[in-house]
Amino acid sequence: MLSRTADNLYWLARYVERAEFLARIIEASTRLANLPSAYAGSSNEWESAVATAGCAPAFHAVHPKATRETVVDFLAFSPDNPSSIRSCFEIARTNARAVRTALTTEMWDAINSAWLDLNRYRASNLKRDEQLGSFLSFVKETGLRFDGSAYRTMLRSDGYWFSRLGVMVERADNTARILDVKYHVLLPGAEQVGGSLDYFQWSAILRAVSALTAYHWVYKESLKPWLVADLLILNDQMPRSLAACYESIVRNLDSVSLAYGRQGPAQRAARAIRTKLENARIDDIFQAGLHEFVTDFIADNNRLGNAITQQYLA
């Protein structure tokens, strides 16, 4: 496969995954913002949404304050934000057009129809929660439709493997960011860990990654920060956990190396991160610092992305 084609497939998958994640972040922030004042207190959920998306400097260069209106506009529609939902869909469709013959009909229909349908939405038309909810459902369903069509219709060859690598590298980064921001930004300084606001915030985070039901299936008890972290970091059964993402990354990189006849820095980096996750224990992570662990992971994940680019996509 040409490196240009592999690059388009890799980034197509990453941008679709990123758009879905942004929709989940906005949905979680909306849910937290609608909590009764007795629970919500002085929470800073909209500032947290911008921080989770990793675009706080760019946001504050345009908007002095994080509010529902400014954050929804910036994260969903703003041309000033290269990672807004609109920008993600536009870049994804551009990549899809470049490799149209490498996609199945179902994959192309999913991303092309999403781009056309996106033109029906404007930030000014999402003033009410039900209108915003309809838009966010459309974005999430697009991600599910695209991901499902890739899984169900692509040949298990290098095109599929590079597409899955894009999904999993992006998903791992997103899960780490939402976990880190909750632990360090979302809970106001005056609130206590374990209080009512803390509980509702952890619940919203689990809902944002479709893991609330899974949490209760696995742990069968009330929400506890260390168990939420265990689920989202170390539990292989949770599809969006860091461990599950890296199990898939290692497997798909191994498939690529077998097809191409050699391994390289990307395979070694992925295995090192996977081994680190396999050997980690949640008590040790909290003792050393969850923020430090997640920060190191995000840096390692970025280095892996660079290694994949240099080895296969450049």
What does this structure look like?
The longest helix has 31 residues, at 3-33. With 314 residues, this protein is mostly helical. It has 16 helices and no strands. Helix 1 packs antiparallel against helix 8. The model has no long low-confidence stretch (mean pLDDT 90). It starts with a helix and ends with a helix.
Index terms:
314 residues, 16 helices
Rg value? 19 Å
The helix-strand sequence is HHHHHHHHHHHHHHHH
Strand-residue proportion: under 5%
* Helical amount: over 70%
Low-confidence stretches: none
Given the C-alpha coordinates, what overall shape results? Answer: globular
How confident overall, as mean pLDDT? 90
Could you give a quick summary of the protein structure above?
Helix content is about 75%, strand content about 0%. It is built from 16 helices and no strands.
Q: How are the elements arranged and paired?
A:
Layout: H1 3-33, H2 37-40, H3 45-52, H4 56-62, H5 68-77, H6 85-98, H7 105-118, H8 129-153, H9 158-186, H10 196-208, H11 212-219, H12 225-233, H13 242-260, H14 265-279, H15 282-288, H16 290-313
Helix pairs in contact: 1-3, 1-5, 1-6, 1-8, 1-9, 1-10, 3-9, 6-7, 7-8, 9-13, 9-16, 13-14, 14-16
